[in-house]
Amino acid sequence: HYNSIREVSSKDLSNDVYARDPNTDTYFFVGKIARVSDVTPASAVARQYNLIEEHSARLRPIELYPSWGSIELWLAPGDSELDVAYCKPDIRFIRVDRE
Q1: What number of other Cβ atoms are within 10 A of residue 25's Cβ?
Q2: Could you tell me which residues come within 8 angstroms of residue 30 by beta carbon, excluding any fewer than 6 positions away?
Q3: How do residues 67-90 score in pLDDT, each as one tens digit?
Q4: Residue 31 class from Cβ within 10 Å (0-12 exposed, 13-18 middle, 19+ buried)?
Q5: Cβ(15)–Cβ(76) below 8 Å
Q6: Is pTM, for the whole model, over 0.85?
């Protein structure tokens, strides 16, 4: 479904997802989401929070697995991985709370 949404909307309806141990300042890229136009980015992640959190913990077992259950998820604009890596100041992260 991700590819189908991207073909129709480019990066307007996609976001990059980052995970963070609440006791550190390091954000780890853990994937991307795509959604339909009537779903907010935060809602798209909140509906899958447990799944994304588990994926994050297994993807980064040393850094995130010990914090499984309290991992924070954050969103950045779609296809912004390089901008984030280069610490460009115009990139804004949005924290997603559990539903």
Answers
A1: 6
A2: 17, 18, 19, 52, 55, 56, 59, 60
A3: 999 999 999 999 899 999 999 999
A4: middle
A5: yes
A6: yes
